[in-house]
Every structure is written in structure tokens, then in C-alpha cells.
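User: Some background: our group keeps a shared notebook of sequences we're curious about, and every so often someone picks one and asks for a predicted structure to add to the entry. Today it's my turn. The entry only has the sequence so far, pasted here. Could you supply the structure so I can complete it?
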Amino acid sequence: MKCYIIRKNAPFKAAVTLSGSTLSFTVQPRSEAEVERTRTVDLEALRSRPDFGDHALFTIYDQVCTNSAGVNPNVFENISNLYAATVATKMDAGTYHRSVLQLFPFAAIYVPLADSPVSDWSIAINCGPEDGELNEISLGQGLDRVDGVSIPNTGELLVFPVVKFDASSTTVAPNGEVPVTFHLERPDGSRVTDVEADIYLDTTGGYLTKRRVRTATGEGSVTFRPDGLQAGDVVKIKCGFKHFSGTDDFMVTVA
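Assistant: Of course. Here's the predicted structure to add to the notebook entry:
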């Protein structure tokens, strides 16, 4: 499993281990006022949570997070899917952490797709700049150290598949219909064919025969009908996941 090292936090020492599906973070004290603490997460157990799903980013918080002194201690016991928490407001991760939680996570768990095996998941540690003994993250067997950017950007750039339409636009007669096809795509542009996902679709006008489609070999399709539209109207169809919408757009012109 990849462990992305993010360096946007205060320095601290920690050991990260993975045993089966049990992930453990042990944070060492930085002063006599702190004690060593271990946070354990059963990765397989996350599947039973209501906020589990495709394209999930579970965030974990600790006293080592910058600005943690003024935060409700219950936050340190919490783990939640960032995208499920923000899907209704469309709030970006930075704004959510600054204005709502008022601190940034020290660790994260990336779930590419709900059906992905745990071995395909990734994690991140948000630590301080490289400065020797003050900031040391040790990784156990089965965890591969990789440099990351920020916790959400690492996921979007390096980990999470997205839904892409097979084309960008089409035209349809006022009384006609048109197929709309899409597929799952990895960050490197390759197609996902071995794991399926539930795709959610929406349109600014007209009618879609389905608004949720289960892929088959990473592909799916719906039919669009311009019900109630006139020649010259242009509508936008969006695709995405339940907790992360709008990964691509498809334009339909009525002509």
C-alpha cells in the first residue's frame, strides 16, 4: 500500500503499521506534557459506514495538527469521509478545514472505488518539513513511501479514478434521442476495467433514462431525450459519484 508523505504540518514523530486490514498510527510525544498515543483503524470495517463509497477520502485528526489546541477534543476521535461531509455544500477541502473544523488532518485514507480491495487503497501522513529527528515517520512492512502534494490534491492527481464521457458534445433533434456513454478512468488516463462503480448523472434540461448506472467492465451508458426542449437549446449533463459529483461534462445541443 502506498503511503504519501505530505509536508504541511508541524514536525512530529510517528510510526505507521499495516497488519492485514488493521492500520495503526502511533504518535510519539513532543514534550513531557504529551503521551504516546496509537490510533487504530480497521480498514475493512469502513465498508459498513454510511459515508463509505466510491472516491472516498477518510480524514484523521490528532493533537499534532497545527492549531489543535483550540479544537473540541471529540474531533480527535472522529474519522469521516471528507467528500460525504461536503457534497451538499460543495465546500472545498481547504475552506472546510479552515472554517468548520479549524484544523487540517494529520492522516488520510484513500478509497479509489468502493469495490476496490484494501490492497489498492492508499494512505497519507501530513507531517512537518524534513529536519532530522524532530520529524521522523517510520513505515512498517507493506507500506511504500511516496511524496505527495496535499491530502486532497494527492488523491485527485495520483489516486482516484474519475468518470469521463466518451465524447464532449453531441446534437439531437427536438423529437429524437441520443446515447450518452461514459467510462472509469485512472489519473494516468488508462481505463478501469476490473472494478465497477455506481455512476450518478444529472442534466440541466431534458430527460435521462437513468440517473444512476452501475458500470460493466468500467463502462456505462444512458439515453438522453430533449423532452420539453426546442431547437437551439443547449443542456449540460454531468457525471460523477454519490459523494463526489461533476467529474466531467457533456454538452447536448438541440438542432
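Suggested note for the entry: The helical segments are 82-86, 93-101, 151-159. Residues 93-101 form the longest helix (9 residues).
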